Amino acid sequence: MAPEERDLVRAARSGDDDAFGRLVEKTQSRLVRLIRGIVRDDDEAMDLVQETYIKAHRSLDTFREGSAFGTWLHRIGVNAAIDHLRKRSAFSPASLEDAGSWEGGGEDPAGTSGRPTPDRLLEGEEAGKAIRRALESMPPEHKATILLRELEGLSYDEIAEITGAAVGTVMSRLFYVRRKLRDALREHR
User: N or C: less crowded end of the chain, CB within 10 Å?
Assistant: First the structure.
């Protein structure tokens, strides 16, 4: 953990609300993006982000300073989002285009112009639908794992710490999700 972050956590533990506010400022955009990618509803995501910060504030005494605050916070948020999806039971997949798709983010795949062609747009839209359908059928833990890896760029160890799963389980989930997404794209073409 960075010294500045450590100092903010210590100050927040001592009741300094401004210090906790600065921790929120440093982590909020990534947390919102992650939770929104999991639950796919802006209002629900904002409620869950707020719930995450409330839980984190109440649990600051349990935070281990050897860990990164953001990783600990992401774990609280991912768990809240997964619990929410289980309660909601209707699981809506993330739009990879909205979540910063790792397939080029809407650029012209051929790289021939500044804009994609209508055919490429339609093809990309259909591929996105196939990916979303594949994600719909996956458990929330698998969806969270792929978002943490591909959207947030986290390592296997960081994902394991956030999700509470073993590194081998993280690797297995990623293998399963990627295979399912490849199959969906193959069927699409």
Answer: C
